[in-house]
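re: that chain from earlier
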Amino acid sequence: GFPIMRQWFIVHPKGRSLSLVAQSFLEFAISEEQTMRDAMAKQWPLVFQNAE
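^ sequence. v structure.
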């Protein structure tokens, strides 16, 4: 059924520095994580209730 729930992981090699774009995206993803979770929970409350 829908929505299809997925987990996303952001990874990179430990010994390498991130590019400026990658670092900016990582910072954005971290800063927006809770906002996105809250928005999805409002849109699909039953899915999030069953996922916990």
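The mean pLDDT is 83.
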